[in-house]
Write a structure and sequence with these properties.
The protein is of the alpha/beta class. Bound molecules: adenosine-5'-diphosphate (ADP).
Amino acid sequence: MSPSTLLQLRDVGKAFAETVALEPTSLSIEEGSFVAIVGPSGCGKSTLFNVIAGLTAPDSGEVRLSGQVVTGATGHVGYMLQKDLLVPWRTVQDNITMAARLTRRVTDDDRREARRVAEQYGLGEFLRHYPSALSGGMRQRVAFMRTLVTHQSLLLLDEPFGALDAQTRLEMQQWLLQVWKETGRTVLFITHDVDESIFLSDRILVMSPRPGRVIADLENPLERPRDLDSLTDPKFIELKSRVMHLLHGGAA
Ligand code: ADP
């Protein structure tokens, strides 16, 4: 394991009765990197995340974070889903401090931090608003900020922009890249959208249909910072072609 490895999975496998959700899988994720995971529905992506988060116990294998075995233990990652799970009767500020609310008393420091991240990342004016007053993209920003203030170095994002329209989605991708750059977190990002996986990531893990396994681990050669022109860069098109062939059964 290299000194900068944050997450390491060794032969992690999981079946639900007769259904093999995840074949024994090994991978390493470097600290500070952005790694996308693409694969068809039902190939075990969420199972993989649940095992990393300690919400699902694997049948085999081991999960290590910063070298420590954390298999089956919770509370060491930030986790965000497509459904924002905001609490409708709490304001934006109170939703951001929700993790603190669930585990201990919310302090003035928690509120100050919620205000700071909201102001820094474009939601400062909405701190006292309720989720129903926000657009889909804004709700996802709040959900992401709630994940951010848990101070976990590893963030698991499971199709966070999957329900947004194309225009909002692109804005959110650019926003996420800015936050990622400024906060130095390590991100694992599940998506169905090949363009999204390339636009965001340093590396792409492609999974096979069930029983899920990682069939390719591709470096993304696209330079940063990324902008609209990245989407038509020849390197983008070439990588997209490789990923599409892998997903649809052809050779890489
Ligand atoms: P993905 O996130 O790639 O769509 P999942 O990890 O959700 O895939 O699911 C992988 C497979 O495992 C699917 O066939 C799914 O039906 C099955 N599965 C997932 N969770 C459970 C569960 N708690 N009980 C039974 N089967 C499950």
